[in-house]
Design goal:
Elements lengths: L2 E5 L4 H12 L3 E6 L15 E5 L5 H10 L7 E4 L10 H25 L3 E5 L14 H22 L4 E6 L16 H14 L8 E3 L8
Parallel strand pairs: 1-2, 1-4, 2-3, 4-5, 5-6, 6-7
């Protein structure tokens, strides 16, 4: 059975990825800050294993890594993130730029055992090319994530892992808003298609949910 870990799975794109992978018969490890109150995650059919995870809590990160220490993860998707509203710049940078690298590093052994794939969900707002000034804390945090990823990617390749950062599209979620043109279902299907088709030559790239190259 193929296995996937989805970090930040309680709603939006993450929840839809859980639904789709589970429906296709994958073992899904899904993280949420409130597994005791799973919400829609509790209604997903299939083999879905919930893990408690606040990505800023080092003990919880270590606990998830320990729980997956015997697992071979074919795919790891780090989807957890926050927007500017209601959060300080330090919080946005910690969750969006620092945590994805820390969580992925903790789980990299499980991915390496399967020669698996890692996707860090970024955003077109993190692209530096063509930017004019700041795009807010969210955009700055995704730019910092992209920079950190580019620094770490060569070492990850040495572990037999194929890793990319990905723009998921402007999606109708709590973060993207009701006016976004892309449904979570459509975005998730695109993300899964890109992951399925990744090869070693794609390692270290910035891709869109359609599989196109995105400028840095």
């Amino acid at each position: 059975m193929s296995s996937v870990a989805i970090i930040g799975a309680s709603r939006g794109i993450g929840l839809e990825l859980v639904r789709q992978y589970a429906a296709d018969g994958w073992r899904v490890h899904a993280t949420t800050r409130t597994p005791h109150e799973p919400g829609a995650l509790g209604d997903v059919a299939g083999e879905v294993i919930l893990h408690r995870l606040d990505v800023l809590d080092a003990r919880q990160v270590a606990s998830v890594a320990d729980a997956l220490s015997g697992e071979s993860l074919d795919v790891l998707i780090h989807n957890a993130g926050i927007k500017d509203s209601g959060h300080s710049r330090a919080e946005v940078m910690a969750v969006n730029a620092e945590a994805p690298l820390a969580v992925t590093t903790a789980l990299l052994g499980a991915v390496a055992r399967a020669n698996g794939r890692v996707v860090l969900v970024s955003s077109q707002l993190g692209a530096r090319e063509g930017r004019s000034g700041s795009l807010g804390n969210y955009g700055d945090s995704k730019a910092a994530l992209n920079d950190a990823f580019r620094a770490e990617a060569p070492a990850w390749a040495n572990n037999g892992v194929i890793a990319v950062v990905m723009h998921p599209g402007w999606v109708r979620t709590d973060m993207g808003g009701p006016g976004a043109p892309i449904s979570a279902e459509h975005s998730a299907r695109g993300i899964r298609r890109v992951i399925q088709n990744l090869s070693a030559r794609d390692h270290g790239r910035f891709l869109t949910w359609r599989g196109d190259e995105h400028p840095w």
